[in-house]
Every structure is written in structure tokens, then in C-alpha cells.
Amino acid sequence: MRMPIVDVGAKELSYEIREIVDIAKFIEKKTNKRIIWENIGDPIAKGEKLPDWIKEIIAELVRENKSYAYCPTKGLEETREFLADLNNRRGGVQITKEDIIFFNGLGDAISKIYSLLKRQVRVINPSPSYSTHSSAEGSHAGCPPLTYYLDPYNNWFPDIDDLEKRIRYNPSICGILIINPDNPTGAVYPKKILDSIVDIANEYGLFIICDEIYCNLVYNGRKPCFLSEVVDDVPAISLKGISKELPWPGARCGWIEVYNADKDEEFKKYINSIYRAKLIEVCSTTLPQMAIPRIMGDKRYKKYLEERNKFFESRSNLAYKKLKNINNIVVNKAYGSFYMTVVFEKEGNGIKIENKEVEEYINKFIKNSTNDKKFVYQLLASTGICVVPLTSFCTKLNGFRVTLLERDDEVFKYTFENLAEKIDEFLNK
Ligand code: PLP
Question: For residue 147, what are the β-bridge partners?
């Protein structure tokens, strides 16, 4: 090349959640161990089945010619009207269909949201953070993401003082990212926490991005508090989608709801640039958008969500029971989404691996890596359980993320019994 062509931001792009797959496949081949894929939050891949009534709605749409067409750039009018109405009935900030833009999954929205900011402008991410956000933010800025601390010793709630200080001393921060319910921690934030973040945004003239893709996956006695209910006049974007809620991740369908665009000229211009980026792509997937009002507006939907939440509640409690008494870890019960995160309080030594060829193979990857990556790869080699190192979620804390998605009771039991045993071997033997 006549000059370097790769942007400095490229090195911030990593996604351990999928990068581990090739290693797991090698181990599967060499050991004949069945891999238990705990690395990715795909309910369908973990054995969940959409109920027949939802499949029938989708089947009917497949027969409608319109579902094969492009749709308006922002998304289908009737679907955006339905979603605006859903928001407005909750109270809080009111929106119209014009405040909603559809994307090909939130992955698409996230990449546009950060890449269309001025390079010097930063959005502070939680730490740990869902890596699609932190990678996209770091890549846009051309340097590592800026973060605030989620406290494992306080239900994984944001440390509000830490957040405020970081914002006070860094004028390049113009936005705050909240993920609620959270991936990877399973935390659900009470109104008080959200109010405090809104107050900080107000005080420093910031906007808020709130990823609410798990907003209807809340259990264990908590109730969701939506950003729209507390946002007041702060300019904000809420991200929602159907990947986790229906669940239909393969539909690649998510949307943003924009709050208070008219309250700040600069923010309005920014939102318009996001819309224009979608405009040059024409539009997002049509058929899933057609399905949304028919499914979410169906009288069976509420009960369906309740049943799913009951399932995750029971998984969350079982998982917590299996891990809570192990020494030298911090583990919190999940209250929302379908993840749970374990933090190691000390360096671990290692897990014994029987197959020498596999041991040598993984040693190449873990040689100079973090202690939690060592745990994850050794766990994979010795049990076939594939979790994700916590350090890949933009944090210095060591540990791992596991899901609560497994539908097969026996496999779920095997997973958490083996996790308990191997954590203990790694840290305490
Ligand atoms: N936001 C969060 C917090 C997620 O956990 C995920 C996927 O795991 C996404 C967004 C991506 O969603 P989508 O499938 O709509 O791209």
C-alpha cells in the first residue's frame, strides 16, 4: 500500500464471545467432548422454541407480498406508531413515530451511533460493558474506551461518585451509556440510580444512551424502570429490539427511540446524521417489523413474557445456589437479562487437563494472557463448557460470564456443578 490504510481504531475491535469458537471446535474434535456453548446470548441456540402462535403470525406474514419489499427508511409507519404508543402509555417522556428509527439489529444501530460522533467526543461506558458498545466506542475514538465502575460488591450498581468524577475531569465526555437490564452482570437498576445518572447528564449537558434490549426480561421481584420514565428534558436514545425478547435474534431487527431531540440543536443534528446514514442504506429488514405489532399487541404476549421470566428466575436462583458458597469469588444473583457474572478475588493456579495435545494447544493462547482467560480455556479443555472471560467485557476484573439460557435441565445442572468444581480447583486448590 502506498500508505497505511488501517485506522488506529481497528485495534479496539474485538469480540471474544465469538473468537473463542474456533478453539472450542478444535477441543471438541480432539476430545470428543460435547461443547456447551455458554459464550453467546442466543436463546434459540440454547434450545428455546418460539410458541406456535408466534410462528403462525410469522408464517402468515411470509405469505404477504408486502413483507418482501423495502420499507420506509425509519421503518414501517404502523409499527413505529405502535411502539410510540407503547412508550407513551407508560407515562414519562412522550414520543411520536418520527422519534423511532429501525436498524438491522442493535449491532447496526450501535455501530452508527458511535461512528457518527465527532472523533474527539466520548461516551463513557460502564465497566464491565457489553463489548459491542465498548469496542465501537473505542474504535470511533481511536483509543481504549472510557469507563465508569459497576460495583460487584453492591449488586453491580454503577458507582455514581466515580461516574461523576470521571465526567467532571474529562470535558471530552458528552454522553453516558447505561445498559439496563445489564449484560454481562444481570443487574437491574432501581429508579434512584437512573435518577442520579439523569441528574449528572443534566448538570454537565450530556446525552444518554440507554440500551434496553432486555427491558422485559426482569424477575426475582424487580420491576423494570425505563429511561423514558425518568429522563425529564435530557436528550437521550433508548435502544430496543426483538433479539432477546421474542426471541428472534436472526431477524436482525432493533430500533432506537429518541427522547428530547427538540431540546438541543446539536443533539438534533446528530440524530439527523444517524437517520441519514440509514437513508443511504435505504432501510432495515421489513418482515420482522411487520410482525412486531401483531405479536406484541396479541393478548397472549403478556403471559408469554411472564412465563419466560419465571423460567429465568428459576435458572438464576439455581445457578446462584450452586456458586454462592465458593471461596474467593463474588457472585450476584441475576435480576434481569439472562447472564450472570462471577468475579475472582484472587489469582488462580490452574485446572488439570487430561489430554496433553489439547493442553499444549491452549497453552499457546493463554501464555501471556489474563488469569481469567487461562480459567476459561482450561475449563473448556477439561469440561467442554465454553464461557467468556470477564476481562473481555472492558474491565480489569477477572472472572467470567455464563448464561441462564440452557433449556435442558440435565445440561444446566452439569454446567453449574462443573463450574462450581472447577472454580474451586482453579482458585482454592
Ligand atoms: N445490546 C445488548 C446489551 C446485547 O446484549 C446485545 C446482544 O447480545 C445487543 C445489544 C445486540 O442485539 P442485536 O441482536 O439486536 O444486534
Answer: 125
